[in-house]
Amino acid sequence: MKHLSLHEPTQSLDLASGKLVGSEITESRRLIQDLAGVFADEVSRSKMRQDQLAYRVQVHKPVPDGCDGGLFFGTSYIEAGLVGSEYMMTKGHFHSRIDAAEYYWGIAGIGMLILMNESGETWAEYVRPGSLHYIPGRVAHRLANVSKDTLVVGACWPSDAGHDYSTIAAKGFTARLMQINGTPTLVDAAI
Ligand code: PAN
Ligand code: ZN
């Protein structure tokens, strides 16, 4: 009987660190060995310690993957560092249900949200603690860490959005975020 009963929530979010604790929370990790072909400088990536953590993602999934009408809530932690001259970053994806949008917000560290539309136009916006980012449907998205600390970013997206990694794996983003003279610079990937 739920009528008139009072409950403690079964999950918590630490607002300062982004850490999710409680039931229905999963964590996945991407190591350097999982990111073959993601960075421009594959030779540099292959010479790195392959079991080095690149990023991890905590997700609260109160409903199954693909569920119509539900929401997922996650925290991404992207390690600091460079692969060659390119900032550490996530694989990036379109959503499988291509119209599905997503919110990101900055929690800690400084990064860039790299966005690409279906026409192949790529741009990026700074992610800082408190910044809020609406990612429309039909826009691929990836996070890069441009600071010396772990980049922590919150996210909320529809449970039926899904992740299409194959389009990015095949074609990549049309621009890459490189450190040039110490500054984050978007560079045309074709050059
Ligand atoms: C995020 C991403 C997370 C990891 O939760 O999944 O930052 O990036 P990749 O999935 O590209 O490896 C999100 O955008 N969910 O939809
Ligand atoms: Zn997404």
Structure description:
- With 191 residues, this protein is mainly beta.
- The protein has two helices and 15 strands.
- The strands form five sheets. A six-stranded antiparallel β-sheet has the order 3-4-5-13-8-11, with no helix packed on it. A three-stranded antiparallel β-sheet has the order 10-9-12, with no helix packed on it.
- Strand 6 (82-83) and strand 7 (86-87) form a beta hairpin.
- It is globular, with a radius of gyration of 17 Å.
- The protein starts with 10 loop residues before the first strand and ends with a strand.
- The model has no long low-confidence stretch (mean pLDDT 97).
- The structure holds 5-phospho-D-arabinohydroxamic acid and zinc ion.
- 5-phospho-D-arabinohydroxamic acid binds next to strand 5, strand 12 and strand 13.
| Strands in their spatial order, largest beta sheet | 3-4-5-13-8-11
Which small-molecule species are bound to the chains here?
5-phospho-D-arabinohydroxamic acid, zinc ion
Number of helices: 2
Class from helix and strand fractions: mainly beta
Biggest sheet statistics: 6 strands, antiparallel
Strand content: 35-45%
Shape: globular
Helix content bin: under 10%
Distance between the termini: 64 Å
Q: Pick out the low-confidence regions.
A: none
Oligomer: single chain
SSE series: EEEHEEEEEEEEEEHEE
DSSP E strands, number:
15
